[in-house]
Amino acid sequence: MGHKQSKHPEFHRDRLKKEGYVTIISHNKEKRRWLVLSDRKLCYSLSLGTPPKNSTILNNKFRVISENSSPNSIECYLVNKKGKTQQWTIKCETVQEFRAWSLIIKHAQRPNWDDPRGALNCKVCNGKFSAMTRQHHCRKCGQAVCKKDSKLRETIPEFGYDTRVRVCKMCAGKQINEVSETLT
Ligand SMILES: [Zn+2]
Ligand SMILES: [Zn+2]
What we know:
Residues 15-110 form the PH domain. By secondary structure, the chain is an alpha+beta fold. The chain is 15% helix and 35% strand. It has helices at 2-6, 95-109, 176-183, and strands at residues 17-26, 29-38, 41-45, 54-57, 62-67, 73-79, 85-91, 136-137, 144-145, 152-156, 161-167. The protein has a seven-stranded antiparallel beta sheet, covered by helices on one side. A two-stranded antiparallel sheet has the order 8-9. The structure holds zinc ion (2 copies). One zinc ion (ZN) binds next to loops.
């Protein structure tokens, strides 16, 4: 079971990769940049093949504020490598590009899932996992939990879950930011 689960794409979020030209608007300045999402970091450079200028670790530090307030744009805030919060608008060239960027940015923010080989007990009730008590993962915090402690289902649009998915007892009803705070 463990081996099979570790092949689940949720364990391999570092493999997410996308790059392409977008317009980045920050401090009222518009710049066409080569944007790269890889290894859960967002970087940009002046053009394809030039070294990246800025990067941010997406998880917990990057939030989509709104989408499409102007066509094909994603407004977000992020913490740059100097620890400063910035607000960006990422304007995509086509609606297809917009959808693809929006989805991959949200996916890259999802929490890492507990490794099934390392998680022996449920994070809520501390009950031991076994063939009878199978391990599940909360989509909001990524922690390994038992079935009875993860009965609830919620949509998590911030992470690109638009249909209801498994959440644990501790995360149910909580905002993403509240969950991130308890984890760090
Ligand atoms: Zn439990
Ligand atoms: Zn949870």
